Amino acid sequence: MEYLKAVLNNKQDKEIKYLKILIETGNKLKKNTFKYKNELTKYNTSTKNNIKTKTITSLKFEKKTPIKKIIKPQISKIDTNKSEYTIKKVLSKNNQILIEFNTNITKDYIRFFEKKVKNATQDIYDIKGRFKYAHPTKLEIKGVKQIVIKQEKYNTLRILFEDKYNLKTVYSINKKILKISVLNLNKKYIKKNIVKISKSPKVIKSGQNRIIVIDPGHGGKDVGAVGSKKLYEKVTVFKVSKYLQSILKQRGYKVYLTRTSDRFIKVKNRTILANKKKADIFLSIHANAAHKSRIKEARGIETFFLSPARSERAKRVAAKENKSDMSTMSYSTKTVFLESLNRPRITASQKLAIDIQRNVLFTARNLYKDVLDGGVREGPFWVLVGAQMPSILVELGYISHPVEGKRLYTSKYQKELALGIANGVDSYFAKNP
Ligand SMILES: [Zn+2]
Asked: What residues does CATH 2.60.40 cover in the chain?
């Protein structure tokens, strides 16, 4: 009763006092005090500007009530449609990881739960929001089997701790910084390694051991699609490809371009490099143009993967992209090749196409909300024929469109598109290791 009075009168100090009494007597009577403890944690984190530790550790021992259902984000102050939220820094230090966001976060954004997986336990922190640059990153704390940070879903950032040992983790928030500490490092593991608690943070990049070949469409005498004022496809796709290369390199990928300058390369030779380098994926970058009669309507981003399917639309786009180099492979050779494509190969390319399309569209809409989703399509693109790895062709937009065409020539938009493709690549590898 005293507690309820305090709640009704909005007397925080009293609420806390009575909550503590409730928990204490509850414990003595061996009653479940979970909800009171949960209440109490609210005060801990709502106090201004102080690092406060939430008592998640103690909650974990009361398995009767599933934690999953109880700790929910109550208010979502982060506008998940925007993705201006970024992760500025991620560090691991001794038994802690620190994540610095570009915005203040509160406990309302965070949902904690434990999960049993095969032979191990996971402590999972889901943070509401879409975080730019949240490509999967592995962190290292000696005494924890693995720690991963990644954009789990469209609007959920996930921080995951996994070990055979049942870890106890706690978190605290100080404005923009989220700190998660592991209280009980796996001692066996540490003993074996003669207590090597890492002093310098070691961030393992997402792209390690992955090889990517980027194919900037067209080049040299083949200018590709042409927009108004002689905007050439070959120019814009080359710039996006260069930005993409630098982002992927930063993330630890090994990256090759089929052309590093404005020169002509036969379509069939583009995949040769990818095969020679034993690339994990092949990305062909293009921009589209519409017939004069459709200049004002045709716009948007679409991603294609190679398949024998021939919809009218895919045929149209494929015909345009295949134009410069139709003679190099006979029709029957191509047909034989297309028929030889097996389902697993087509499916892998389709998955890659879905991840690229979704992420490119998402980042493009960061700048311009009206970017159209042309979707993921399948078609007979000769540039993809011969690639022995999952491969896609992305059409970044219509340079013939009066508005979209101009955007495609700004470095601001080009960078955003490159970032989207890179996020798509990360997302693909995270799901298909
Ligand atoms: Zn093209």
From this structure: 70-204
Give 339 Cα–ligand 1 centroid separation in angstroms: 24
pLDDT tens digits for range 290-347: 888 888 999 999 999 887 666 666 667 777 676 655 545 555 556 656 665 666 778 8
H or E element, residue 338: helix 331-340
Question: Which of 84-88, 252-256, 372-376 shows the lowest per-residue confidence on average (mean pLDDT)?
Answer: 84-88
The third-level CATH classification (topology) of the domain covering 70-204 is Immunoglobulin-like (2.60.40)
Domain span(s) for CATH 3.40.630.40 in the chain: 211-431
Decide: 266 and 326 in contact? Cβ < 8 Å: no
**CA 352 to ligand 1 center in whole angstroms:** 19
Maximum separation of any 2 CA atoms in the chain, in Å: 87
**Rounded distance from Cα 224 to ligand 1 centre (Å):** 5
Q: What is the CATH architecture of 211-431?
A: 3-Layer(aba) Sandwich (3.40)
User: How many angstroms is it from 340 CA to the middle of ligand 1?
Assistant: 25
Is pLDDT larger for residue 127 or for residue 63?
A: 127
CA of 22 to the centre of ligand 1 (A): 69
Cβ-based neighbours of 260, under 8 Å, separated by 6 or more: none
Q: Distance (Å, rounded) from C-alpha 133 to C-alpha 31?
A: 45
CA 284 – ligand 1 centroid, Å: 9
**Distance (Å) from CA 270 to ligand 1 centroid:** 13
Per-residue pLDDT of 18-61, as tens digits, reads 777 777 877 777 777 776 776 676 665 443 333 333 333 333 33
Q: Render the burial of 73-111: b for 16+ CB within 10 Å, e for the rest.
A: beeeebeeeebebebeebbbeebbbbbbbeeebebbbbb
H or E element that contains 110: strand 110-117
Q: Is the pLDDT at 266 greater than 80, yes or no?
A: yes
Distance in Å, CA 393 to ligand 1 centroid: 9
Average pLDDT for the chain: 77
C-alpha 80 – ligand 1 centre gap (Å): 33
- Report which of residues 75 and 1 the model is more confident about: 1
Distance 251 CA to ligand 1 centre (A): 27
pLDDT tens digits for 202-213? 455 677 789 999
